[in-house]
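The authors assume throughout that readers already know how a fold can be written as discrete tokens. For illustration, here is how one protein appears when written out as sequence plus structure tokens:
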Amino acid sequence: MADEISARRGQRHPEIFIGLIPPPQVLEAYDELVPGSGKMIVDYFAQQVQHRMDHENKQSALVASQVQAQIELNRAQIELDRTRLTADNKIREQGQWIGAALTFTVLGSGIVLTTQGESAGGLAMLFVGLTPLVSKFLHGLRQPHA
């Protein structure tokens, strides 16, 4: 009796499907209503899939180029740091040579002054010359070696 009432009232029960495109029987029903519409639905789905794949490929290429650019930037930064360290080491080495030359010049001058009878001036020069050496030695004793 319920079926007869439903049939008389013209009620329909909607169908639900899960998936990306309708099942074949639904596509056939569309084709019966509008000829060629089933093929249009499948073609539209294929276009959307192709569009998504193209978009994902473009995004992947963009990300890959950004990663490559970051790698090149990091390499350039490493090379710049290496150049700076090399220059800093050269400057330190030159500074050490200059400091040693000045220290030994002052010590030599102190020795010469002391041997020529200028004991006060000679001793002052020896003291001034030995101060950086003793200071560096003592400073080195307190610093842990890496």
Observations:
- Residues 19-142 form one domain.
- The radius of gyration is 45 Å.
- The chain has one domain: 19-142.
- Residues 100 and 133 are 9 Å apart (CA to CA).
